[in-house]
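Postdoc handover notes: sequence design on the structure in folder B. Input tokens:
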């Protein structure tokens, strides 16, 4: 709540939107693409304090992945979960197709495979929980295995948020966020963040942002910081609802499997095939049938319809639990499940 705020008498309580590209010469800032803006800095300070490192804001979540990949030498080897964000795997696949690197997909549950990868890979890309299957990977064990080797361990912390875990404390080298999701929290912005304790890495990531022009907008940075201020109460309420709904979904005869990591606002549940799952997604009235996640409104999506997620179980529905009354959410779910 306190990080990233002006502190001097007479200053505004919140850093305002600063739409600027060019500054008067002779000061700390000259051009925004290289030097940032007060709006970016306020957000970066707040996220940096939460994650315990140096934060850099980007134009989107996928821009953070692009910046990390930009640091790799040609011929690098990257390990990534088989079930993980399709955008990240798509970016790695494109780089591999062009001969830039080699990407190896591992099952999220294969801890021995991950610890082995930490010894041979240049980059180990983790999600925990994973998107959309909500598998939990032992970050500490993988990071410990990477000690003494070349591998950098990157953790996409979008689902857990800095309030759920701080991967740098578990030994990770870099944390990335799609602030579009839970940090922003209102489905009204695109923004990404990287965080690292290594000053050289932080400089390299910031230079990649400058070089590739992946800079955030002034409005987006302002909205993301405003969303961050309410993340504790939003996440707590949505998590309580998610725990309740996961339990009830697990008891419904039409649901074949529920995946819930024990905390957070994300649930994945499975029905008997794509047709049944599509019927549920389109039949809901209160819960929105929409992509993305982490907003105040509840959303569902059958992820296997996407080409990049075609290997996901066909009946799996990713469910982002919002702030609606949990009894209203359950009524909506129960009615459509009963008809499925």
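Designed sequence:
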């Amino acid at each position: 709540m306190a990080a990233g705020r002006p502190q001097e008498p007479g200053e505004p309580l919140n850093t305002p939107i600063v739409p600027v590209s060019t500054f008067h010469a002779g000061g700390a800032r000259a051009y925004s693409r290289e030097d940032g803006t007060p709006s970016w800095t306020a957000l970066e300070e707040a996220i940096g304090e939460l994650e315990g490192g140096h934060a850099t804001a980007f134009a989107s979540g996928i821009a953070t992945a692009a910046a990390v990949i930009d640091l790799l030498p040609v011929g690098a080897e990257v390990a990534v979960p088989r079930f993980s964000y399709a955008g990240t795997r798509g970016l790695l696949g494109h780089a591999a197709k062009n001969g830039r690197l080699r990407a190896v997909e591992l099952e999220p549950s294969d801890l021995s495979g991950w610890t082995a990868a930490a010894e041979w890979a240049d980059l180990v890309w983790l999600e925990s929980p994973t998107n959309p299957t909500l598998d939990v990977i032992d970050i500490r064990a993988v990071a410990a295995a990477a000690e003494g080797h070349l591998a950098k361990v990157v953790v996409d912390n979008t689902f857990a948020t800095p309030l759920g875990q701080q991967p740098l404390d578990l030994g990770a080298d870099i944390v990335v966020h799609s602030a579009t999701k839970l940090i922003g929290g209102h489905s009204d912005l695109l923004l990404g963040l990287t965080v690292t304790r290594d000053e050289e890495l932080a400089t390299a990531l910031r230079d990649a942002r400058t070089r590739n022009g992946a800079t955030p907008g002034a409005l987006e940075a302002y909205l993301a910081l405003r969303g961050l201020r309410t993340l504790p109460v939003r996440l707590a309420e949505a998590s309580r609802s998610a725990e309740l709904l996961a339990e009830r979904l697990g008891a419904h005869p039409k649901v074949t499997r529920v995946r819930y990591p024990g905390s957070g606002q994300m649930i994945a549940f499975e029905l008997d095939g794509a047709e049944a799952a599509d019927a549920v997604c389109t039949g809901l009235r209160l819960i929105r049938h929409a992509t993305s996640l982490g907003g105040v409104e509840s959303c569902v999506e059958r992820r296997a319809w996407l080409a990049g997620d075609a290997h996901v179980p066909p009946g799996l529905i990713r469910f982002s639990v919002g702030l609606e009354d949990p009894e209203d959410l359950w009524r909506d779910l129960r009615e459509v499940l009963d008809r499925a």
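Context for whoever picks this up: The mean pLDDT is 97. Don't rerun without checking with the PI first.
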